[in-house]
Specification:
Length: about 1000
Amino acid sequence: MRGKRIRRSFAWLLVTVLVLSLIPAAYAVAEEGSGAVAEVAVSESARAFKVVTRVEEYGAVVPAVIIDMGETITAGGFDAESFAVTMNRLTNATTVNPTPADRTVTKAYVNDKAEIDPAGAGAASGRYIVLELQYGYNDVNYSYVMQYLGGSNIVRPLEMYTVRQTAAITNGEAVIPADTLYENAGRINLLVDDFSRETTADGLNYRLFTPEKEAGKTYPLIVWLHGGGEGHSPTSLGVGNEEQLFGNEGATAWAEPARQAQNPAYVAAPQAAPRWSRASTPQIRAMIGEILAANPDVDPARIYVTGCSMGGMMTMLMITAYPDLFAAAMPICPASPSPALTTEEYANLADLPLWLFHAQNDTTVRIGQSSDLIWATLQELGKEPSESFKYRIFPTVEYNQHWSWVPVANDSYNGETIGVVDWLFAQAKKSAAYPFKVVTRVEEYGAVVPAVIIDMGETVTAGGFDAESFAVTLHRLDINFMTGGVSVNPEPVSRTVTKAYVNNAEQIDPAGVGTPSGRYIVLEMPYSSSDNADYSAVMQYAMNFANFVASHNVVRPLEMYAVHQTAAITNGEAVIPANTLYENAGRINLIVDDFSRETTADGLNYRLFTPEKEAGKTYPLIVWLHGAGEGHSPTDFGVGNEEQLLGNEGATAWAEPARQAQNPAYVAAPQAVTVWERTDAAKIKTMIDDILAANPDVDLARIYVMGCSMGGMMTMSMITAYPNLFAAAIPICAATMVANPAFTTEDYAKLVDLPMWLFHAQDDGTVVIGQSSDLIWATMQELGKEPGESFKYRIFPTVAPYMEHWSWVPVANDSYNGETIGVVDWLFAQVKTGDFTVTADKAAKTVTVTGRNYVSGRKLPLFAEYRTPSADADGEYETTVTADEDGRFSVTLPAALTTDKPWLGGHKYVVTVDDVVHTAPIYTTELRAHSSARVSLRIKGRAPLNLRTDADPTFYEVTVSNPAIASVTQVNGVWTVTGLRAGTVLVMVRATDGSDLTHAVTVSVA
């Protein structure tokens, strides 16, 4: 941040006063965000410098500052005496010492790059001046980046470094006067800046180093767990998520260019806030899961974990909790966890490669209470010392007797190579060939996990195992019901395995028997609507009593499911030993995975199911709008854009194979960011437009919308905002009382012609029926909408055994108490009627087609066919028009189709749009007859009206208003009308299915 400009005279004095008087305010700015710089006064030149940090084996230091002069500088016009560098120490963990300390400048030189010259000589000229500073162990010359205070390392306020030019310096013939104060522009953190700043979904901060990559290669992941001094408290100075890198070389040593050149790897360094504990294990596990999900080139067979002191303790907790996750572990002088590790936990490490390190004279973590105990206990359990189980004791270590991590990071002790690097990268997990997937399925009460399926990677024969051979566990979520906050419970819970069988496909056998042999082992588990009974639910409901609207379903971290083989199993003559822990490889979401993940240009996430298609056919689009519980907050667990499918069968029921076989359709399910607002209607409309643009086989006449609870409110919002877009709507227990703004009489009046079917449970205590569906039903009737097939209301006395609010369950099932409701048939019978007219202009010899296309802006092909009394004089024309924003269009057919045509007697124009007839074929509004009072008329139509062919002429009946004057005969679908006079009404009636469709045409005689 550039400060106010001041005159050079008295600059240094004035700045010193400002710094001393404004230190608390200045640091408050820096504490708010990474890289913030305190405001100080600077010279008119405002040349900027950066503080350089570098991690040494004893911790991070500031070895130099580098000034960007903004122009080329020649060497020789200055020396180390030409500059003064000061910094501010800390008085305690929250206070800056107001008295600055001097840093000694040892070298001053020009460089053409913003970096320290390893030779310390620099270049003949360049843009930068490098000031090297004295530094060393034990904070020599105040060189440390951090101070150890109150049991933690606190990052000093490096934005309070100052650089003052104490003597005039020359640049060729130019002179830069003394007392120039340079501007602090932040830091250059060598190696540390190569680690990106990251945060997991549950709030764990970590840093991640990503290697240089080659296509097709995979890379190990090293997890470094810091000691007790490198955690971060929000009340401390500093921005956090960096102390774990500055404290020592535990993480950065693995990112050094020379080491990466030999062994490229990802390096992850999470940070505790401020101490590690057993409760941290699922957080770190979730971090690893997120890294794997975001970086598919991480090799799951080569995940390594290491840490020192308290981080060594955390290493032990991670490998005992997730022994099959890691290929190897290196606990360094590990502190003892509380409660202590049990024999059962130690037993999990029987097959894990492990190398312990400790200094003999460590007085901080006593070797006999730590590494010696681990070493002895594991041997008592049968783990033999070998290349896979090693222990290195250092007689003493440099600097501090506790710092065993220094030789490990250096891979060297007293000039001897230890072999840490080679050993670690030689380890690869042997059980990686056995991944499993968690199966989810949406039941009427929500999604459950009915099974896990293990991919054995080879043919397995049945009979060598049973349900008792495996144990399946998962982690629940802890919900703070006062705030709605969510965290992972560190204690796993067990799922009961009821069936274990082989299958030759990666799926559950409906019969629960499997096959004699196959590649997969299926473990079925009990499930029900009561998660308390079997922990089978995919989601948990996070209620916030302080703000009910913020309550929502949160997807459990299913990557924390674990499958443990508890007993040896046989495969023919082969034996897979006990204690094999299988690798979690993700999910199989039945039906849900058939919905693609999509996002609109304005950021609305949605899922889209696409039907199996046949060439030339069109398909309806069903839009499902979820309730308040299925929104997604970016702070939740889970990836989002799936809760709206997992919450209930509102969307997935329409994608079930049996229903799709009868009524193939697109199904779209958008997801709100937490809750729906009426203003979201425009976003959902954009989603529909995107779907139509990408899928020209969506039938514009059959777009349906439905939703439950808050989604029922959003259904009402959509149909009042776009009443002509939809062919029908099904609002289910619509939470209209929360609509903001409330629905008005003008809103309801837009729905008079829209087919609607309301559903609600009489005893609904969440959305009270009298304030919702009853109100809609009554208001619409007051506006003239009569109950009938196009306006229906079904009240369920109750929807037990579930919550009284769940009216969507019988709707999704199309069944209530064993009785078919008829929702499916009713919905697909609704077809949006076209709004088209044909006008003939005799004088101009033109025909104009006008109408409305209910999807605004959509290009639509229009087909017009000219009919004369004789079949050989027909004319056809095809064109494409674009509707305006309201969906209206008008097109005049060209003279080529209309010129020189007889304008008397039996002529008509049949018009279809989008190659789909939205209503019966459109006929001319006026028929003129010859003076002979004789006219022929041919009936023509297109699917989906199922118009009969000439071979079945009884489909239409043609009558006249005065049979005493005119008569009608027909042969092979051609009606001949005689005796026509002005004022006679000709009527055509569709009369086969009870839903009469009538066209009345006034006839006059020329």
